[in-house]
Design goal:
This protein is 66% helix and 0% strand. The protein has 86 residues and is mainly α. Helix 1 packs antiparallel against helix 2.
Length: 86
């Protein structure tokens, strides 16, 4: 699961770099407004890539894992409104 998110992140960031570099290396020779538009699209990609890379999957247990301290785990479970199986 982590590998899939990592691949998606690098694909999006690679696309971002490709858009930015091609906009100012090639496209600006024909149309500066199109090159600026490509840069605006490239500007939106990094936050989207970060959201994709940090998305929690249905099987991921990042903050739900028990800490090992039964008193603390019971306290957090009570706050979250769930009971752990004994």
């Amino acid at each position: 699961m982590y590998a899939r998110r990592r691949h998606a992140y690098f694909l999006l960031m690679g696309g971002c770099i490709f858009l930015f570099v091609s906009a100012w290396a090639v496209v600006r020779l024909w149309s500066v407004p199109v090159a600026v538009g490509m840069c605006f699209v490239a500007m939106v990609i990094p936050p989207v890539a970060a959201m994709v890379a940090n998305r929690r999957g249905p099987d991921d247990r990042w903050w739900d894992d028990p800490s090992g301290d039964p008193k603390s785990d019971d306290w957090w479970d009570e706050l979250d409104g769930k009971k752990r199986p004994q």
